[in-house]
Design goal:
The complex is a heterodimer. By secondary structure, chain A is an all-alpha fold. Helix content of chain A is about 75%, strand content about 0%. The longest helix of chain A is centred in the N-terminal third of the chain and has 44 residues, at about 15-55. Chain B has helices spanning about 40-50, 90-105, 105-110, 115, 120-140, 155-165, 185-200, 210-220, 235-240, 245-250, 375-384; strands spanning about 5-15, 15-25, 30-35, 55-60, 65, 75-80, 170-175, 205-210, 220-225, 230-235, 260-265, 270, 275-280, 285-290, 295-315, 320-325, 330-335, 345-350, 360, 365, 370. In chain B, helix 2 packs parallel to helix 6. The termini of chain B are far apart. The chains are: A mainly alpha, B alpha+beta.
Chain lengths: ~325, ~375
């Protein structure tokens, strides 16, 4: 009986409600698209569009300034994988990343910890270590060129004064890439330090008190128990950002070595620049760009995966 | 288990004196609350006992041994923090296990991969597992051992923090405002739980709070700290009923004690609001303050008159705010029977018995007083 009473009202009720609800929903959808619109258009114009263009270009034999081009399929990629220069520059880039990322992350963390634990002159040290980040890298590269100069450079001068043999740091095959790595670490350290400092400040002081009470009195055990785990999210971010920036190394190479001596410092972006803007092989340069983008994308995916796994620290 | 003795503890940050010579002995197995308004130095005192802060001068002894210069972990005290201070990346199990692992495993054995290869670690880990599970069962945390602190409610986090304290069997427990992050209902519930915990463990508890209700309900003795000094130490009932200082009288008890301006006559009789109140003291003639707790004010009859300015009905009891001529703030009176509440704006007679009166001198120190002989009171009536 109660069913019989309920049914008509139950049938009648949803209809006005649905009518009432549907229109605002459609309106709200429209407003949502309108609000997202500008960002989507900009993204299509600035990111997705050029990306598709580059990928398309990598399947052509287009040369910069040429009136026409032809589709040549995967020929650029075949050329590339057969080219020794490509493999050298890929290996060099990876070597650079493998040295600069751990170097600048570990040193950045170390400096941040030292600054944080110190009492005075904090602002001074922060500024000193952050200077390379603010300075123009091209200008700084020229300073480094003087410092590393074989005859009158500061580095060789110091080595000679303690009786060690001098090197032509940027002119010798064994040391050229390593020298660039050192400059890379020097440049990235300050940025990483600032990020780590921000991370350190956000760790609650009470956790260190608790660690002290729980028996983790030493600096190392406190670092293992509190600092390192709580810096986890910052560390993932720092590693990925430094990785991506290291993949993009170009200015120091271009100013100091131009990829030499005999391709010892040839890196991906420099090869790309040479092919695209010196030899005008735009299609081939586009193929190199695609390889570069794949490397960066891989790093970004690793970061997304790791940050998704991080717990929310409440 | 241990007796904790503090003698002449002083501490200053820069130029501010936070502690000005604190002496306190806490007996083995006692529950002592350090209570006082915020900024009175009670947390600093607790941190000095824990070893997290160094005292400027004075001595801390735990179990008869001076512990100055002894690291916090070596003092074998456990502490529960206001923010719980749980390690957010560790599960509940690992959080509780931290003190045991720190004590029983070497740095090498604690290493994530290498440590597992060492033979001792397996044996110790098995012991630790048993003890952690035992503590978790006591605190009804067994179902949450795998969770991270972020996935727990405030009350559960609180219990994990307590678990981490219990598991190491410390000589004393230190609580630093552990309930202030909880909502009112849960706070009352946790109050009972902590009191029960103390009865079960029979351990020394030092409990810091700014909430006098917490201190009154849980502890065996309360130590009222104001302005870096211990003003009064005693059983809760004694401190409530017999405050030695006007600041103690005002701080302990909710709602606050009523303070009326008064005058001591040269014959020892006490007057307030122009009337003698049947109390006599030996003191010399001087102005004084007359303290009467809201529940000791008798409404309906008496020598004084006030106007009802506000009525707070709490359900089981009610508080009437009476505007009285000559008083800057309304006087509070408790009414036990909420069915007979006075009308707002109506005039109400009130009075109080002589034994409800606590007298304080102008400096805030307590003046001993007693009920005046009946003859004096008769005289007083005659003179009116």
């Amino acid at each position: 009986m109660s069913d019989a009473v309920l049914t008509p009202s139950a049938l009648a009720l949803p209809r006005p409600a649905a009518v009432l609800r549907r229109r605002p929903l459609r309106l709200r959808g429209g407003a949502a698209y309108a609000l997202v619109g500008p960002a989507v258009v900009l993204m299509l114009l600035m990111l997705i569009g050029p990306l598709c263009g580059v990928i398309a270009l990598s399947f052509t034999d287009y040369q910069l300034g040429a009136p026409s081009f032809a589709w040549i399929g995967l020929a650029n990629y075949q050329d590339m994988f057969a080219d020794k220069t490509f493999w050298i520059s890929l290996t060099n880039t990876l070597t650079y990343v493998v040295v600069v990322v751990p170097g600048s992350v570990v040193l950045g963390l170390g400096v941040a910890l030292l600054i944080q634990s110190g009492t005075g002159l904090r602002a001074f040290y922060r500024t000193v270590y952050f200077l390379p980040v603010m300075a123009t890298l091209i200008a700084m590269a020229i300073v480094w060129e003087f410092m590393l100069h074989p005859q009158f450079g500061l580095v060789n001068g110091l080595l000679r004064s303690v009786g060690l043999p001098a090197h032509g740091w940027l002119q010798e095959r064994d040391t050229a890439l390593l020298s660039l790595c050192v400059i890379g670490v020097w440049q990235a350290l300050g940025f990483n330090m600032v990020l780590f400092l921000a991370g350190l400040v956000s760790i609650p002081k009470a956790l260190y008190d608790a660690a002290e009470i729980d028996g983790a009195g030493g600096a190392w055990s406190q670092f293992r128990l509190v600092t390192w785990p709580l810096l986890g999210p910052v560390t993932v971010f720092v590693v990925v950002i430094t990785g991506i920036r290291s993949f993009q190394v170009f200015d120091t190479v271009h100013v100091l070595t131009k990829g030499g001596p005999s391709k010892a410092t040839e890196v991906l972006i420099h090869t790309m620049y040479m092919e695209g803007f010196e030899f005008f092989r735009s299609g081939y340069a586009a193929a190199l760009t695609v390889v570069f983008l794949v490397c960066v994308l891989a790093l970004t995916l690793v970061k997304a995966r790791l940050t998704a796994r991080q717990v929310h620290y409440a | 288990m241990a007796r904790i003795e503090l003698s002449a503890i002083r501490k200053s940050f820069d130029t501010t004196d936070v502690l000005r010579g604190v002496d306190l002995t806490i007996e083995d197995g006692e529950f002592v609350s350090l209570v006082g308004p915020s900024g009175c130095g009670k947390s600093t005192l607790l941190r000095i006992i824990a070893g997290l802060e160094q005292q400027g001068s004075g001595e801390v002894r735990i179990g008869g041994e001076p512990v100055d210069g002894v690291r916090p972990s070596q003092r074998n005290l456990a502490m529960v923090f206001q923010s719980y201070a749980l390690y957010p990346h560790l599960s509940v199990f690992d959080n509780i296990a931290v003190p045991l692992r720190m004590k029983r495993l070497t740095t090498l054995e604690r290493l994530p991969l290498l440590g597992r290869l060492l033979p001792n670690r397996y044996r110790v880990e098995r012991e630790i597992r048993q003890e952690v599970e035992h503590v978790a069962a006591q605190l009804e945390l067994s179902a949450f051992l795998g969770r991270k602190p972020g996935q727990l409610s405030g009350g559960q986090r609180q219990r994990v923090a307590v678990g981490r304290a219990i598991v190491r069997r410390p000589v004393a427990f230190l609580f630093d405002e552990p309930l202030s992050n909880l909502d009112a209902k849960l706070r009352v519930h946790m109050r009972a739980e902590i009191a029960q915990l103390h009865r079960r463990l029979q351990a020394t508890f030092i409990y810091v709070t700014h909430d006098q209700a917490e201190a009154m309900t849980m502890s065996g003795r309360i130590a009222v700290m104001i302005g870096g000094e211990l003003v009064q130490v005693g059983r809760p009932a004694e401190v409530y009923d017999n405050p030695r200082d006007i600041r103690v009288a005002e701080f302990v008890g909710s709602p606050k004690i009523n303070l009326l301006p008064g005058q001591i006559r040269s014959d020892g009789a006490v007057e307030t609001l122009g009337q003698r109140i049947g109390v006599a003291t030996k003191g010399i003639a001087q102005p004084c303050r007359v303290g009467v707790r809201p529940e000791r004010i008798q409404v309906g009859s008496g020598p004084f008159v006030g106007h009802v300015v506000h009525v707070e009905n709490m359900g089981a009891e009610a508080f009437v705010h009476l505007g009285v001529e000559g008083l800057a703030t309304p006087l509070l009176a408790r009414i036990g029977d909420v069915r007979e509440l006075p009308m707002l704006g109506s005039a109400l007679r009130f009075g109080f018995a002589p034994d409800a009166v606590r007298l304080f001198d102008a400096a805030g120190k307590r003046i001993e007083a007693h009920a005046a002989p009946a003859a004096v009171r008769t005289l007083e009536v005659a003179s009116v």
